[in-house]
Predict the structure of HTH-type transcriptional regulator.
Amino acid sequence: MQRFILHWGDMGAKWGVNRSVAQIHALLHIAPDPMTAEEISETLNLARSNVSTALKELQGWKIVQSRRQLGDRRDHFTSVRDMFDLVTIVIEGRREREFAPTIEALNAVQAEAATDGTPENVRKRIDDTLSTMQMFDNWYTDMANLNRSVHVAMLKLGSRIVKFLPKGNKKSKQTDKGS
């Protein structure tokens, strides 16, 4: 349990998440029962204020929920248990906070660059960047709308899907912008 929590904390730091936030999530993810903030604080030897702040952040990500228990005034916290749901929530959250605003900003930059005298080669680079990001976002949106059973089947198929795709040099530049 300790190694899992420590590793999740280290990975959280690499993902841009505070180490203690990631450790609290790890603890709640593997804990068999919901935990109070006091229990989390004692288990991880973290300040109670740090735990409260981290729990609010995790709830903002929608990967931790609080529940009340009969006869207890304290909140009891648990993580999303289903790993598929957890990954889906994290990916969608990152898309909404990071990827979608970048596409929105690039659309504005592209529109401004079309009229402000930005050199053609710079406008082309902006266009290419936006086009590629939009292609990935469209792909993600299409994939996200599929049923879980389709996602699972695709994941199980894994790299074997390559044999159904046209062969080609992965380093060659793609010229078909519509695919």
Notes: The chain has two domains: 2-79, 83-163. The chain is about 65% helix and 10% strand. Strands lie at 64-69, 72-79.
